[in-house]
Amino acid sequence: MSVNGPEDMGAIRLPGVGGVICQRRLPEYMLDWLETLPAEMLPAARVIVRPGEIYSAVTLACDETGLSDAPERRILIDDIAGLAATFGEMTRAKWLRLRLDVVMTNACRRFHIDRVTARLVCTYRGTGTQYGVARDDAPDTVHTVPTGSPFVMRGTLWPAQPDPHLLHRSPPIEGTGETRLMLALDPVTDPDAES
């Protein structure tokens, strides 16, 4: 299902909706800026924090790579923090697992459903997440989420089984020279129980 803005991503709760794509365009100059950065300058992070602490976590990840303060950097940090606030509110999560990954290989090339209640992914650089509907194996028709568009999916721990059976994967990019910058957010109930 497509929605117009992040504030409409709560449509994931509607019956029969396995995933929601927010159709939006990030500023072209910001996407161009990300494309020109060397891979080692792209921010990476794997932490569990409260939704309101995402801004600080992403700022720290940018600082750790030496990414200089620029309007584009501020847009990226603000966007991730805004998506985290919306997703945290939507899932009623007191904690979120933030994964900001720099991907240059076939990270997760098999179609699958994640073992979470819900997951938000957004690709800021490179090819977006691929998805399709299937019962057991790879979908017959594969779609690609546009770069910069948030995608919220139900996981296997969602209280009701998703129908249709929406599967997703990272696009196979190994050997292409492509570098992706991908955000993933998961709700976390008990951070102490997480490994």
Residues in β-strands, percent: 25-35%
Structurally, how many domains make up the residues? 1
Number of helices: 3
Give the mean pLDDT: 87
Using the coordinates shown, work out and report the CATH topology: Jelly Rolls
Structural class: alpha+beta
Global geometry: globular
CATH top-level class: Mainly Beta
Biggest sheet record: 7 strands, mixed
The rounded distance between the terminal residues' Cα atoms is 33 Å
Unreliable stretches covering 5 or more consecutive residues: none
Run of helices and strands:
EEHEHHEEEEEEE
What radius of gyration results from the CA coordinates? 16 Å
Tell me the number of strands: 10
CATH architecture: Sandwich
The percent of residues in helical segments reads 10-25%
- Spatial strand order of the main sheet: 1-2-8-5-10-4-3
Tag the structure with descriptive keywords.
single chain; 195 residues; alpha+beta; Jelly Rolls; seven-stranded mixed β-sheet; three-stranded antiparallel β-sheet; globular
